[in-house]
Design goal:
single chain, mainly beta, 16-stranded antiparallel sheet, 3-stranded mixed sheet, 12 helices
Length: 823
């Protein structure tokens, strides 16, 4: 709240001219007595008299006024001692401290800002006359928000060394409520219809404690403007609010608001034209703006047309364009001719772009995201696009810019970009714990802004239950100045699937890869990659789903040996990113489509296709309430034949489900199960001694089935909805690093190659052991609350979830907690 600044003129106190006499004289000496804080030299600068000057009573009077204007003194006397002039002064006390007590509607920061505007601050001399005006201004403010019983008292406490303490004591009292809002003169629309537009409430019953009928002057004025716009948007061009009265009850605890209005009649747009300079684009602008001849006059359409023209001209450097609509009203025919006066002004150029706030990131990294260039004309479109592209960087929390005119020049500006950085990775060494992976050891670095260069680097050694992985990766997003990216990676992995609720097998693999990305435009990008992988599978249990690999690659002379595969993978992908921020976005979308396939000379011939998307729709203007949806689809299969067998997607490449995709369920618990089928032995002929002649294999219809661990599938579908809400008890400035949301998750993984009909000849009991793992409709669904935090240790997630739809053998988990999990 800014309090109006008032001027106070101090009267001259105690000036004595009698001792000076009526005649002029020549000054031999000047003295200033009573100085404590003010230096003698500073005081003399305000005295327009020098030794040797011929002075008189008028000269002394002017000098005393000049000393008062300096603001340093409360009392000044001028005395003559022979031909010497002595100024005896009493300095104003210095403000040592300022305190506030009892203020609720006005924060301390707002009060300090307002006092500072009137030179009332710690360390400055106190002008008591200004305090009276401040008290009055504060009382007027409280009246404007309905607190008519508010009192403000300023006490001054003297301290040693001519210092004082100021205490502003507030007794705000209760706010007056709106007892009634009366509209007088409306016949076309009822009071109820018009007052629905108003934010102000009137005479609320006690049980509506969540609403407020508190009177606030600014809110009432805004409500009346909404009513005005309501009429203007429906053609009532002559609508007018004639007068507004606010009556306060004797107890000063309630008010009555009355607005007298004139509705008028509807007017149509007879036509519209332009005057001024539209840079030769009159026909284009005329075809795009929403104004239409013959339609009812609409104030919002007129305003949006003006704003569109301003915004359009600002794209070409005319940042100060003026657009004004001049109506020519024909009251007889109830029509209006609109003339849009356009003055583009001078084209404005950018002299300098200044980047501030970046403590870790180099200026070059920020500047290369800008489409607004130095020396080019100022474009609002380029500025907004530059802001958006910088803000999409994962290591930027917020970005803002300010256009500053160059002093003395009317066609040049400087643009100040201010960024606020945030952590986009972690330098880590130590232990982490997750409810699924258990205790983990990790050492390394994962950083999206390595040494402030904007390059992405990762070096990690991670060990957890059943998994060891070493990886090194590096990506330069600006491998060329045009934004072509290049990345490389190398890895080693040792994986025991049985530790992750999967079937028994072990995998050792290592590989190296590289990729390159090309920007199509500001939001679309394509990527291509190649990777060489060497993999060894061992200790594979026999299941129906692993039978293809075993029969294709089994060495009859060494059936217990593992399988070695060499794979050459090619990948191609497309991505579209329109989100407003790199981490925790609140608007826009992310979409990607990726195809990975091994080459025909690979030992395993397969492909995998993945699509991922996430959309964000802000519900509130401040983007603290956001609705989000996501979807992920995947499909993979084999191609070609090897040793007479058709290739299928290898079981170790099957799709799986993470905790972030389906909260409330253990990882991998919803995957299809591995199936074992083995013949049932039939006892031979019994002998007299009770033994048998042996056993013989039964027919296939007597086979037995057994389901084991989860194995995954070659098709996947994930969907989810989230309502992102403000985190309770958290300041708004921290919302970029903490996110709270209510969610609904749904997911399924299935195997299109699984054929349940192959088991129809078995007994009913055996068939009952199976589910149709090829059914794409076996979705699991959960709902709950999620809290995400970008902590100094890395991303952290805690979720409270409840399964809405599950199957009998699913393992559920109400609470999940992870550190160093990727969001």
């Amino acid at each position: 709240m800014a309090i109006k600044k008032h001027l106070a003129v101090s009267s001259l106190l105690g000036a004595s001219f009698a001792a000076l006499g009526q005649n002029s004289f020549i000054v031999d000496d000047l003295k200033v007595e009573g100085l404590q804080r003010v230096a003698l030299g500073a005081a003399l600068t305000h005295i327009p008299i020098n030794v040797g000057d011929n002075i008189d009573e008028y000269t002394i009077s002017r000098t005393i006024k000049a000393l008062y204007r300096s603001g340093h003194f409360d009392n000044i006397k001028a005395l003559r001692d022979g031909n010497s002039v002595i100024f005896r002064v009493t300095e104003r006390p210095t403000i040592s401290m300022i305190e506030f007590d009892g203020n609720k509607d006005i924060k301390d920061e707002q009060l300090n800002e307002s006092l500072d505007q009137q030179d009332i601050r710690t360390g400055e001399p106190l002008d008591k006359t200004v305090l009276d005006n401040i008290e009055k201004g504060l009382v007027e403010f409280f009246h404007s928000i309905g607190k008519y019983n508010a009192k403000v008292d300023v006490s001054i406490t003297k301290l040693p060394r001519n210092r004082v303490k100021l205490l502003f004591k507030f007794d705000e009292g209760d706010a007056a409520s709106i007892r009634q809002i009366n509209l007088v003169g409306n016949e076309l629309f009822s009071d109820e219809e018009l007052l629905k537009l108003a934010e102000s409430q009137q005479d609320l019953p006690w049980w509506q404690f969540m609403s407020s009928d508190r009177y606030q002057k600014q809110t009432i004025e805004g409500d009346l403007e909404k009513i005005r716009s309501y009429y203007l948007d429906r053609g009532y061009l002559r609508f007018n609010i004639d007068s507004t009265q606010v009556s306060v009850s004797p107890e000063r605890d309630s008010v009555y608001v009355t607005a007298n209005i004139t509705e008028g009649v509807k007017y149509k747009v007879k036509g519209f034209d332009f005057i001024g300079d539209l840079l030769g684009r009159e026909e284009l602008i005329k075809s795009v703006i929403p104004l239409k001849t013959g339609e009812l006059y609409n104030g919002s359409v007129v305003t949006s047309s003006e704003e569109f023209i301003k915004s359009y001209l600002a794209r070409f450097g005319y940042a100060n364009a003026e657009v004004r609509t001049i109506p020519e009203i024909d009251d007889e025919n109830k029509e209006v001719q609109l003339t849009l006066s356009v003055n583009p002004g001078k084209r404005v150029y950018v002299r300098r772009i200044i980047v501030g706030g970046n403590q870790n990131t180099s200026d070059e990294v920020v500047r290369r995201e800008m489409t607004q260039l130095e020396g080019a004309w100022l474009s609002n479109q380029s500025l907004e696009r530059s802001k958006l592209q910088i803000q999409r960087l994962p290591y930027m929390e917020s970005v803002d810019f300010n256009v500053v005119p160059v002093p003395g020049v009317d066609d040049q500006v400087d643009v100040d970009f201010t960024v606020k950085e945030q952590s986009a990775g972690s330098f880590n060494a130590g232990l982490a714990y997750g409810s699924y992976l258990g205790l983990q050891f990790n050492i390394g670095v994962s950083e999206s802004n390595f040494l402030g260069t904007g390059n992405q680097i990762g070096f990690n050694i991670n060990t957890s239950r059943g998994s060891e992985r070493i990886s090194v990766s590096y990506t330069d997003p600006y491998f060329t100045p045009d934004g072509v990216s290049q990345g490389s990676s190398i890895f080693y992995s040792n994986y025991d699937a049985s530790k992750f609720s999967l079937i028994d097998y072990k995998s050792k693999s290592y590989g190296i890869g590289t990729n390159i990305g090309f920007p199509i435009d500001a939001v679309n990008r394509i990527n291509f990659g190649v990777r060489w992988v060497q993999e060894e599978l061992s200790d594979i249990a026999e299941y129906e789903q692993t039978r293809v690999i075993r029969e294709t690659f089994l060495d009859p002379e060494n059936p217990d040996a593992g399988f070695d595969f060499t794979k050459y993978e090619l990948s191609a992908g497309w991505s579209r990113v329109t989100v407003n921020r790199g981490l925790f976005p609140t608007a826009g979308s992310r979409q990607s489509l990726n195809l990975t396939a091994t080459t025909p000379n690979s030992d395993l011939q397969y492909f995998k296709l993945n699509y991922d998307s996430r959309f964000y729709w802000p519900i509130s203007n401040d983007h603290r309430w956001v609705f989000s949806t996501r979807a992920a689809l995947g499909y993979g299969n084999g191609y070609g034949t090897t040793n007479g067998y058709d290739q299928t997607l290898p079981f170790q490449e099957f799709f799986r489900i993470t905790e972030m995709e389906l909260r409330g369920f253990d990882r991998n618990t919803i995957l299809p199960r591995a199936v074992s089928r083995f013949p049932q032995s039939v006892p031979g002929t019994p002998l007299p001694d009770g033994t048998t002649t042996g056993s013989i294999g039964g027919a296939s219809e007597f086979d037995q089935l057994q389901t084991a661990g989860r194995i995954g599938g070659n098709a996947k579908a994930v969907a989810g909805m989230e309502l992102i809400v403000p985190t309770p008890f958290l300041d708004e400035e921290n919302t970029s690093s903490v996110r709270t949301s209510f969610f609904v998750d749904a997911a399924n993984v299935w195997d299109t190659e699984f054929n349940i009909d192959r088991y129809q000849n078995l007994s009913t009991d055996e068939r009952a052991k199976l589910d149709d793992y090829s059914d794409p409709m076996r979705f699991r669904v959960s709902t709950g609350l999620s809290l995400q935090w970008i902590s100094p240790m890395g991303p952290m997630l805690i979720s409270f979830a409840y399964p809405l739809q599950k199957e009998e053998d699913d393992d559920t988990k109400t609470i999940s907690f992870n550190i160093s999990n990727t969001f």
